[in-house]
Design a protein that fits this description.
Shape of chain B: globular
Number of helices of chain B: 10
Strand content of chain B: 35-45%
Structural class of chain B: alpha/beta
Number of domains of chain A: 2
Strand content of chain A: 25-35%
Largest interface: A-B, 29 and 23 residues
CATH architecture of the largest domain in chain A: 3-Layer(aba) Sandwich
Oligomer: heterodimer
Helix content of chain A: 25-40%
Shape of chain A: globular
Distance between the termini of chain A: 35 Å
Radius of gyration of chain B: 21 Å
Structural class of chain A: alpha/beta
Distance between the termini of chain B: 38 Å
CATH superfamily of the largest domain in chain A: P-loop containing nucleotide triphosphate hydrolases
Largest sheet of chain B: 11 strands, mixed
Helix content of chain B: 25-40%
Number of domains of chain B: 1
Largest sheet of chain A: 6 strands, mixed
Number of helices of chain A: 8
Order of helices and strands of chain A: EEEHEEHEHHHEHEEEHH
Chain lengths: 256, 440
């Protein structure tokens, strides 16, 4: 079973400690949500798990499928099955969605088998068409430059499209609901739900509870000041919805 | 001083060689021009960085006193690689001309010849069509422009000549290649193209030499292009000289009323290049587009000096040059849009974009406008940027390795240039160059 195990993780950005000893285990097939006010280190956790060079791990461990994730380059992590849906997907002008996706798929195949000739164009087209239909995307979208001039909703849909095409074992969704109207939110969530199953572990990072109406977590964690302070079931998210974060701040900020 | 040596050595050796080759063969008209050019050559000095056009290209390391032209005593150049002979436009050529120091190979479709199309090497043209050569030779590039222009004019060993009669549409592209190798040799050629009224042509030219060589080689070329009224020329110029070659060229195209010139440059080779490319929009309604692709690595130095001259009203020019630089390489682009006082309602655009892929690489980008008319639209832009970390991280997060991620971003950067090139084969050559250079 693919498990992501985070032990006592400390991470600094530009010399400032953001994560201060975070512990979390996500198993394949589980859906976890991390909630918390802005600035508590939720995105730092997402970027660190993907291996962004600006985030330096000062101590702690992250294991994925029994391997030390922290020793891997971001591309290796991806090929091992880690996926990050970015809060702010980056525009790559001049590179079409289709070309990019084919390159990403072929990079996986080549890593598995250096002799691999890559996915055939007809196979790729069929796959892409199918995934795009699932996300209710216009086929013309495949010919557009990746994230270049995309609306907020298009960007998030493109992220889920990539997730669908790359078939990760653990997906981290960083504020995937931000910038989405209700319709887009529903489409994106349906996409994620369609991909969920016993083979996929999901970590949903969100500020608001509303995304969790669509993507239902079994486990909800509350993050404050770089650590997880409360863990529970879906009822924890509903509690937050009702009472806000003030009670969490009161309970933990004095001690932090 | 090396400038003195360059002039004396080439003059001494090559006047002899030149006389041997051509004494009885050059028609009087060409001879008169060459003699005049020789005078310009004799009084010209090697440019120095105190001259504005040469401020960023230093020739102090040019082994000027070394160079001489090929003689029969020199070893033969290696054969032209097959990949260079392949068509890059369409499936096949209407004609191909391979000019090497020891001879020319030429194939031209009989249908073209029956329509009066002339496509041959310069030597042949001077013998057989002196009046046509005189219509273009020396009319656009003056030997006074620099010592290299004068050298090309006076010592041209050979070159390519194209003449398209009035109203003739050449359907399949013409392709010429200049190729040569040998330590201490200077290869001096002219390209002359004359399109009569209402004719059309696609012409691909490549200057090339062996890629890996320690030989010291110099290439000097004058290019003169005449696009007549309502004529339409697509001109693709590829430069894939070895990284041992000092390359100098003076190019000017004149476009008459309602003529069109789509001018594409692709430069990936040479040790050092100084290129002057001028577009003269001479007649009302003339249109010209210049699209440049360059990519440098190691210690390459490419300097492109472009000029868009709007001499007549209702003319349009559109220039986009894009370059990427690796290692310790350096590029210079210096562009000028000139609009003459009477050239009202003209539209001029120029942009140069550079992507620096190494801390040691450097790109200079100097746009310029000189507008003497009042009812015009002229815009320009110049940028020099580095490879950004965020796109690379994004691509890596999808499983794409670092090197490949960098290449994808570079290809994306060049995409606007690729979009302007209507030839799949040419785009493929550029893609291959990116791949090759980024592999190291």
């Amino acid at each position: 079973m693919s498990s992501l195990v985070i032990k006592d993780l400390h991470v600094s950005v530009e010399g400032k400690e953001i994560l201060k000893g975070l512990n979390l285990t996500i198993n394949q097939g589980e859906v976890h949500a991390i909630m918390g006010p802005n600035g508590t280190g939720k995105s730092t956790l997402a970027y660190t798990l993907m291996g962004h060079p600006n985030y330096s791990v000062t101590s702690g461990e992250v294991w994925f499928k029994g391997q030390n994730l922290l020793e891997m380059e971001p591309d290796e992590r991806s090929r091992e099955g880690v996926f990050l849906a970015f809060q702010y997907p980056v525009a790559i002008p001049g590179v079409t969605v289709a070309n990019f996706l084919r390159t990403a798929i072929n990079a996986r195949r080549r890593a598995a088998n250096p002799e691999d000739k890559g996915i055939s164009i007809p196979d790729f087209r069929t796959m892409l068409k199918e995934k795009m239909a699932m996300l209710k995307m216009d086929p013309a979208f495949a010919g557009r430059y990746l994230n270049d001039g995309f609306s907020g909703g298009e960007k998030k849909r493109a992220e889920v499209l990539q997730m669908a095409a790359l078939k990760p074992e653990i997906a981290i969704l960083d504020e995937t609901d931000s910038g989405l109207d209700i319709d887009a939110l529903r489409i994106v969530s349906e996409g994620v739900n369609a991909l969920s199953g016993p083979d996929l572990g999901v970590l949903v990072i969100t500020h608001y509870q509303r995304l969790l109406n669509y993507i239902k977590p079994q486990f909800v964690h509350i993050m404050m000041n770089g650590v997880i302070v409360e863990s529970g079931g879906p009822e924890l998210a509903l509690h937050l919805e009702e009472h806000g974060y003030d009670w969490v701040r009161e309970k933990y900020e004095e001690t932090a | 001083m090396s400038s003195v040596k360059l002039t004396t050595t080439l003059r001494k050796t090559e006047q002899k060689g030149f006389a041997q080759i051509d004494a009885n063969k050059i028609p009087a008209s060409a001879n008169a021009f060459r003699s005049k050019a020789l005078l310009a050559y004799q009084s010209a000095a090697l440019p120095t960085t105190s001259m504005e056009a040469w401020r960023r290209t230093d020739l102090r390391n040019l082994p000027a006193d070394l160079f001489r032209v090929f003689t029969d005593a020199d070893p033969r150049s290696p054969a032209v690689p097959v990949e260079i002979l392949q068509p890059v436009v369409d499936d096949h050529f209407g004609g191909q001309l391979v000019v090497t120091p020891h001879g020319t190979e030429r194939t031209v479709g009989a249908d073209l010849e029956s329509q009066g199309v002339i496509f041959c090497d310069l030597r042949t043209a001077e013998q057989n069509y002196p009046e046509l050569v005189a219509k273009i030779l020396g009319t656009l590039v003056s030997p006074e422009e620099s010592v290299f222009a004068a050298m090309s004019a006076s010592f041209a060993q050979n070159g390519a000549f194209i003449y398209i009669p009035q109203g003739v549409h050449v359907k399949q592209p013409l392709h010429s290649i200049f190729w040569g190798a040998g330590d201490g040799l200077a290869f001096i050629n002219n390209i002359l193209v004359y399109l009569e009224e209402g004719s059309s042509l696609t012409y691909v030219h490549e200057s090339a030499s062996p890629k890996e060589s320690a030989d010291r080689v110099m290439v000097a070329t004058n290019v003169e292009i005449h696009v007549g009224e309502n004529a339409d020329l697509r001109f693709v110029e590829l430069q894939s000289l070895g990284s041992n070659v000092w390359n100098f060229s003076h190019e000017r195209s004149r476009v008459d009323s309602n003529g069109k010139l789509d001018w594409i440059f692709g430069a990936v080779g040479s040790k050092l290049t100084k290129n002057f490319s001028d577009l003269d929009l001479a007649g009302e309604g003339a249109w010209g587009r210049m699209s440049g692709f360059y990519m440098t690595d190691k210690n390459q130095h490419l300097d492109h000096d472009t000029q868009q001259n709007h001499f007549a009203a209702h003319t349009t020019s559109d220039l986009l040059f894009k370059g990427a630089l690796l290692d310790s390489s350096r590029s210079v682009w210096q562009g000028m849009i000139y609009v003459a006082p009477d050239a009202q309602q003209t539209d001029g655009y120029q942009a140069n974009r550079n992507l620096i892929l190494s801390d040691k690489a450097r790109a200079d980008s100097i746009p310029g406008l000189e507008i003497l008319a009042d009812d015009v639209r002229c815009t320009h832009g110049a940028t020099v940027g580095k490879l950004e970390q965020e796109p690379i991280f994004y691509l890596k997060s999808r499983g794409i390795p670092q090197k490949e991620a960098e290449r994808i971003v570079v290809e994306g950067f060049f995409d606007p240039i690729m979009q302007r090139i209507p030839f799949e084969g040419v785009r493929q050559r550029f893609q291959d160059a990116i791949l090759q250079k980024m592999k190291n």
